[in-house]
Design goal:
The structure is a single chain. The protein is an alpha+beta fold and 124 residues long. Helices cover 33% and strands 24% of the residues. It has three domains: 35 residues, no CATH class; 33 residues; 56 residues, no CATH class. A three-stranded antiparallel beta sheet has the order 1-4-5, with no helix packed on it. Strands 2-3 form a two-stranded antiparallel sheet. A hairpin with a 5-residue loop joins β2 and β3. The longest helix has 15 residues.
C-alpha cells in the first residue's frame, strides 16, 4: 500500500481526471481491499492482460521488458481459527488473532517466485 500511495502522490497534480482531489491515505486503500475477494484481483489482472496482450509479444525486446517486471502480492493465512483455538493473540475486543502473512515476488517472465517472505499476520 505504501508504494501505491506514493505512486499516486507522485502524480498528485494529474488526479482530477480520476475524480480525486487528494491522495487517499494508505489505511483507506487497505480498508477498501478488505472487502474485495481474490476473484476481483484475478479478474482485474485477466482484463488488463487481455487489453495489453498485443504489447507483450514474443520478441526479444519484450522478453527483456518482462524480465524487469515483478509482480508482488501478500496474503494472510489464518492459523488459529479451528485447529489451535487456545493459541494466538486475543485483542481487547475479544477477537482472536493468529496467522502468517505471505509476501511473494514473482518474475513476470519466468513466472517463478523470486522471493517468498513470511511475517506476522498483523504486520505489513
Amino acid at each position: 500500500m505504501r508504494e501505491v500511495t506514493q505512486g499516486i502522490a507522485a502524480y498528485g497534480d494529474k488526479l482530477n481526471h480520476l475524480g480525486l482531489s487528494y491522495t487517499p491515505p494508505r489505511s483507506t486503500l487497505s480498508d477498501a481491499n478488505v472487502h474485495l475477494s481474490e476473484v476481483f484481483f484475478g479478474l482485474l489482472c485477466q482484463k488488463l492482460y487481455q487489453r495489453y496482450q498485443e504489447l507483450l509479444s514474443d520478441s526479444g525486446k519484450d522478453k527483456a521488458l518482462l524480465k524487469r517486471i515483478f509482480l508482488i502480492d501478500s496474503t494472510t493465512i489464518s492459523l488459529f481459527k479451528a485447529i489451535m483455538k487456545c493459541v494466538g493473540r486475543k485483542s481487547l475486543d475479544g477477537k482472536s488473532k493468529g496467522g502468517i502473512k505471505v509476501h511473494t515476488m514473482l518474475n513476470a517472465y519466468e513466472q517463478v517466485p523470486q522471493l517468498i517472505h513470511f511475517s506476522e499476520a498483523g504486520s505489513t
